[in-house]
Design a protein that fits this description.
Blueprint (H helix, E strand, L loop, with lengths): L5 E2 L36 H10 L4 H16 L14 H10 L6 E7 L5 E7 L9 E9 L4 E4 L3 E2 L17 E2 L2 H15 L19 H4 L6 E4 L9 H12 L11 E5 L3 H11 L2 E5 L5 H7 L8 H9 L10 E7 L7 H10 L5 E7 L13 H13 L5 E2 L23 H13 L1
Parallel strand pairs: 1-13, 5-8, 8-9, 9-10, 10-11, 11-12
Antiparallel strand pairs: 2-3, 3-4, 4-5, 6-7
The structure holds S-adenosyl-L-homocysteine and iron/sulfur cluster.
Length: 425
């Protein structure tokens, strides 16, 4: 019999990338929010408006937008001086008002399996609030490199098996902060056109990624911190920039948005972004799903699956991925595996079993490997590929659901204390 158990990721044979350089974590207190706005993450129309403010005449705007877009998203320019095809005067005028800044990288961790995690710092919502922190993870595999992006600082939902769900603070990320995560990853990996490829690059020059069109970051998943469909517009705008063929150019088929089931925005994701969809199902009965994914009380399984059936562009070639976290003695019986297959009948689906990734203080355990294999076999025998997602980067708490930054909402008292300190400074 064919072995049903597949793993989606083997230990990487992708070259280890990354420019030399050590990222030293600076204390939060030393953080300086950017003084000028960054052009990263603006749509073409917004970029045109920015050019108008520095006096670029309307007739030239489209051409200038095109140039800057190329420098930003194909070449990865970090300052205006790099933009050699743009006149010196315009570069100076832009630099006086704008930057090309990305979120500040405060730490970089590299797992024994090649997974990288970056801790990024963002400005707080007002000047007295501490800066916010988010995490972003790069997972190299043999045939692809996947970047896992955050959409919010923390998450308003409280799935009890998810580390992010225990973090109180929530602020939506801006499109610039979402696109900024891609920029940071490509900066750190040396993944821009014309950039020196990273250290330890095993490719010969004839097989250079640049020539073959292969890049370190080939896929994007919105599976980091936050619920992307609760920050819909910013996520949409950022993903449309990532998919733009004249820029970062990651095909929409290589972009997957994972939702815990925000039914009200699922159709919009299909229509307005057109990316692939992943749904965090995790249970086959409402009673258990109410507990594991509390949003189920608002949007129960039947409604969620209806929205999936109607997902724009759904076909056998474009299936929805159903994620199912394997929690020991909670949702991992073989009866549940059978029920899962029945539940999804008729929906073009893939089922992705995720071994639970533990984090400090959790009350859950990962199912035994033997049980995961048996569960997977039931699904395989029903005709589904049932890849088990090999945990990546567990040693640096970079695996699914382990992300949590130190940012927490300040209590009113803490805020008052900070304000008082600022006033007496
Ligand atoms: N908020 C979105 C996307 C981020 S979570 C969502 O919930 O879909 C990405 C995936 O990791 C989800 O399927 C989530 O349920 C899963 N996950 C969360 N915590 C996990 C953990 N500790 N171990 C394994 N998977 C986890
Ligand atoms: Fe939020 Fe997703 Fe974690 Fe649930 S699993 S708390 S929706 S990030």
């Amino acid at each position: 019999m064919t072995e049903p158990l597949q793993t989606t990721s083997a230990p990487s044979t992708m070259p280890t990338a990354g420019p030399a350089g050590f990222v030293e974590k600076t204390p939060l207190e030393r953080y300086l929010p950017p003084a000028k706005p960054s052009l990263v993450g603006l749509s073409r129309a917004q970029l045109g408006e920015a050019l108008a403010t520095v006096g670029v005449p309307p007739a030239q705007r489209n051409m200038r937008v095109q140039q800057i877009w190329h420098w930003l998203y194909v070449r990865g320019a970090r300052d205006f001086d790099a933009m050699t095809s743009v006149s010196k005067e315009l570069r100076a005028a832009l630099a006086a008002q704008f930057t090309l800044a990305r979120p500040e990288v405060v730490a970089e961790q590299i797992s024994t399996d090649g997974t990288r995690k970056w801790l990024l710092r963002l400005p707080g919502e007002h000047s007295l609030e501490r800066p916010h922190e988010i995490e972003c993870v790069y997972i190299p595999e043999t045939d692809r490199g996947t970047l896992c992006l955050s959409s919010q600082v923390g998450c308003t939902l409280t799935c009890p098996f998810c580390h992010t769900g225990t973090q109180r603070l929530v602020r939506n990320l801006t499109p610039g902060e979402i696109v900024g995560q891609i920029m940071v990853a490509r900066d750190r990996l040396g993944d821009w056109l014309g950039a020196a490829r990273g250290r330890g690059n095993a490719r010969s020059s004839a097989d250079d990624g640049e020539k073959s069109g292969q890049r370190f970051v080939s896929n994007i998943v919105m599976m980091g911190m936050g619920e992307p469909l609760y920050n819909f517009e910013a996520v949409r705008d950022a993903l449309l920039i990532a998919a733009d063929g004249e820029g970062i150019a990651i095909s929409k088929r290589r972009i997957t948005l994972s939702t815990s089931g925000v039914v009200s925005n699922i159709a919009r994701a299909g229509a307005e972004i057109g990316c692939m969809l992943a749904v965090s199902l995790h249970a086959v009965r409402d009673e258990l799903r109410n507990e594991l994914v509390p949003l189920n009380r608002k949007y129960p399984i039947e409604q969620l699956l209806d929205a999936c059936r109607n997902y724009p562009g759904l076909s056998n070639a474009r299936r929805i991925t159903f994620e199912y976290v394997m929690l020991k003695d909670v949702n991992d019986s073989l009866a549940e595996a059978k029920a899962l297959v029945k539940l999804l009948a008729g929906i073009p689906a893939k089922i992705n079993l995720i071994p639970f990734n533990p984090w400090p203080g959790t009350r859950y355990e990962c199912s035994d490997w033997e049980r995961i294999e048996k569960f997977s076999e039931v699904i395989f025998n029903a005709g589904y590929a049932s890849p088990v997602r090999t945990p990546r980067g567990r040693d640096i708490l970079a695996a699914c659901g382990q992300l949590k930054s130190a940012s927490e909402k300040l209590s009113a008292r803490e805020r008052l204390a900070l304000r008082a300190m600022a006033m007496t400074d």
